[in-house]
Amino acid sequence: MQNLLILADSPEAFRELLRNSLAELLPTTPAATAPDTLLTIPEVCKEFGVSKTTLTEWTKNGIVPFVRLGRRMYFERSQVLEAGRTHKKYQHRKG
């Protein structure tokens, strides 16, 4: 590993140089490549503003995909968003 020499004339300049140096050295992972989080039924209902009954109907009709682990159901955030976008009831109509 290289030695890094930082010279600054004020604390603010030092902080800025340190931030820039760390940004160059540390790898960044974009949010798009981060793993999708699993949500429980109450979390989906709260985050997307739907009732538990509505979510249950959507899962029965195959509108929202889910993962079952034992007796629990989990939903991937991106899949719930995509299901909401493609659901015909919630698409805006022109004309």
TrEMBL record:
Residues 38-82 form the Helix-turn-helix domain. Pfam families: HTH_17. One of its GO terms (molecular function) is DNA binding. It comes from the Bacteria. NCBIfam families: excise. This is Helix-turn-helix domain-containing protein. The lineage of its organism: Bacteria, Pseudomonadati, Bacteroidota, Cytophagia, Cytophagales.
